[in-house]
Amino acid sequence: MRSAHTVHDVRAAEAALMARLPEGALMQRAAAGLAAVCAGVLGGAYGTRVVLLVGSGANGGDALYAGARLARRGASVTAVLLSPGKAYPDGLAALRSAGGRTTADPAAGEELVRRADLVVDGIVGIGGRGGLRGAAVPLARAAAGSGAAVVAVDLPSGVDADTGEVAGEAVRADVTVTFGTHKPGLLVDPAAGFAGTVHLVDIGLGPDLPGPAVQALQHADVAALLPVPGARSDKYRRGVLGVAAGSARYPGAAVLAVAGALHGGAGAVRYAGSAAREVIARFPETLVSTGRPSQAGRVQAWAVGPGAGEDASARVALEDALASDVPVLVDADGLRHLKGLGRPARGALAGRTAEVLLTPHAGEAAALLDVAREDVEARRLEHVRRLADAYGATVLLKGSTTLVAAPGGGPVRANPTGTGWLATAGSGDVLSGLAGSLLASGLSAFDAGSAAAYLHGLAGRRAAGRDGAPFGAHELAGELPAAWRDVRGAAH
Ligand SMILES: NC(=O)C1=CN([C@@H]2O[C@H](COP(=O)(O)OP(=O)(O)OC[C@H]3O[C@@H](n4cnc5c(N)ncnc54)[C@H](O)[C@@H]3O)[C@@H](O)[C@H]2O)[C@@H](O)CC1
Ligand SMILES: [K+]
């Protein structure tokens, strides 16, 4: 599990640890880790050209000390000082005594960047506010346009460490070397898209850190969550998922939701709705009926809404499922009907004894919160939390990094496996069935949502192939068994 902490928590942990260590020890740990990653990226420091972009704070200090280490190993190192009067003095002295040079001329800096093998971004770290400013902007652009590898110190300068927002220009890194713990912005888009490959350098903060603000599951975490049948399992004990999805207009959504559901761990899938004929034709193992959810027989969870349409029967299906005493996943048209139930948002769900999992994309989340879609996309972390609290439900916010938040606080899970190839019609229907199936097999809404997003992303990557190619949602569903095997195989 990768964990990310807020700037406030990182600073508090650093202060507690620093009080027990000699002065400068933490920065030396950070710089040593940074220099080691840089040397690895370069394939050895000797004879290489390294340019440090150095701002006014300790982030620049890390870059200067790492630059001194690289210079001692034979790299030609030049620091471009963006605030020459404020650059970290001891770091500057260390660089100079190791044979490194400095310049305060931004134009000369841009020229150096264009000819560099490696650019180290020490402009700002966790002390940064807003996008890049002044001379940092053309330098960051020159770095992006050069052939140099760009290594960001702690986080790419210009991105917001806590929110993942990118308010203006930011450095585009190939590699980010972060210290002590991840920062939420390294796991959450849009900022995460600027970070490249992230290396965590352990500087000893662990014992002083509280619980994380954001988590990203890894194979072993997901393997531990996935339900595996034992000797005493039967199809009912494994859990039965009810799917109320699709309509005469969108029968395919029902088929795709069932396709996802058959790969989520439930022992059986019941379908209730007007696409029963299409579902049974494609998946003869499904138990189908054409009535409302409450007439379909006993289930352990419902997945409601994909392709359900806008007419009254879809609203009735949602109300019916919510009136049950089992967990309910609400997606797509179901979310629209949820919004339109006419009762206060919380009221629609408050009386339930079992969990609710909402799975909106940014546009649906915006509609549920009455805000602009762009606001949700720019500050996804804030909005997934707000939506979970407003509706008293667990929320899976789909997108470039899918986020899952439970109501009432606690860490948000950021899914690391997504790929842009998943943005294809029907992909969300497969996810609904998959997450619903995991709910039916007994996982909490939080775990079901995050494990489903993880498997769905892996399946998407497999379907796209190593070089990347488009696929249809039915092919995505077809890759789910292989995604399970990837995850379970890595845990053994
Ligand atoms: N505190 C510690 O013990 C450690 C800190 N470390 C480093 O220290 C960093 C934090 O250092 P600081 O608190 O000095 O802060 P930063 O170095 O992140 O930046 C602060 C300075 O940047 C300026 N600034 C803010 N936003 C800007 C923007 N958008 N464009 C240009 N300049 C901007 C501010 O005026 C401020 O002076 C971490 O990110 C990490 O790299 C590491 O050395 C590990 C140990
Ligand atoms: K930085």
From TrEMBL:
Q: How is the cofactor bound?
A: Binds 1 potassium ion per subunit.
Q: Where do the annotations place AMP binding?
A: K398, G399, S400, T401, T402, G428
The protein's name: Bifunctional NAD(P)H-hydrate repair enzyme
* E.C. number(s) listed in UniProt: 4.2.1.136, 5.1.99.6
- Cofactor(s) the record lists: K(+); Mg(2+)
Q: Which PANTHER family does the UniProt entry name for this protein?
A: ATP-DEPENDENT (S)-NAD(P)H-HYDRATE DEHYDRATASE (PTHR12592:SF0), ATP-DEPENDENT (S)-NAD(P)H-HYDRATE DEHYDRATASE FAMILY MEMBER (PTHR12592)
Stated role: Catalyzes the dehydration of the S-form of NAD(P)HX at the expense of ADP, which is converted to AMP. Together with NAD(P)HX epimerase, which catalyzes the epimerization of the S- and R-forms, the enzyme allows the repair of both epimers of NAD(P)HX, a damaged form of NAD(P)H that is a result of enzymatic or heat-dependent hydration. Bifunctional enzyme that catalyzes the epimerization of the S- and R-forms of NAD(P)HX and the dehydration of the S-form of NAD(P)HX at the expense of ADP, which is converted to AMP. This allows the repair of both epimers of NAD(P)HX, a damaged form of NAD(P)H that is a result of enzymatic or heat-dependent hydration.
The organism named in the record is Streptomyces thermolineatus
